[in-house]
Amino acid sequence: MRTNCPVSIAAAFIGIVRYVVANPAGLVTPYIPRDLSQPAERIIYEAESAASFDPSSVVDGANSGARGDRYVDMGGIGSYLEFVVDEADEEGDEGYNPDDSNDCAISFRYASASRDGATRPCSVSVNGTVVDTLHFSTTHWWRRWDQAVVWTKVNCSPGTTIRLTALSKHGGPNIDWMALDFMYQLDPNQVEPAGSLRGSCK
């Protein structure tokens, strides 16, 4: 499902200038900014509709601000949420088919308000292989939501699994949704000016 996403023209311009200064050859070679303002495709998975989660994690709605007013309150250490990747969203760009060669930002919208301000580290695994650990810092209030992001490569073919697992005694945070932002990859034979941005947010 597509959502509105901000485009910082100034930030993009500054990034382009810095890149050109540091990489003059970039003027005649493909340049792919890892910029979430220009994803080729965004797919959102609601936490409460996850393929599976452990018995200690529960669907809740006591705290406001969640998309659809529902979220998953993760349990203690070892609690998890697992999502199964579908095919590209039907609202995506026509003819765009992400595969295992595509950079992807895995984002989790979450809330966490431990009294001691502790982070809630969780591993992120793709098809059973841990790709990174996200340290969910406190949002200071269970009704204040933030996002944590990890970059990796995700195969968008049906059946690919993404699991978030709590690693500390504090357990995991409240999770509103997971989003996959797939980025455009340029054809290696294609030449575009440095800073050429593709894709759009609608």
TrEMBL record:
Quote the Gene3D superfamilies the UniProt record gives: Galactose-binding domain-like
> Where is each CBM6 domain found?
43-181
Q: Which SUPFAM superfamilies match?
A: Galactose-binding domain-like
Lineage: superkingdom:
Eukaryota
What's the protein called, per UniProt? CBM6 domain-containing protein
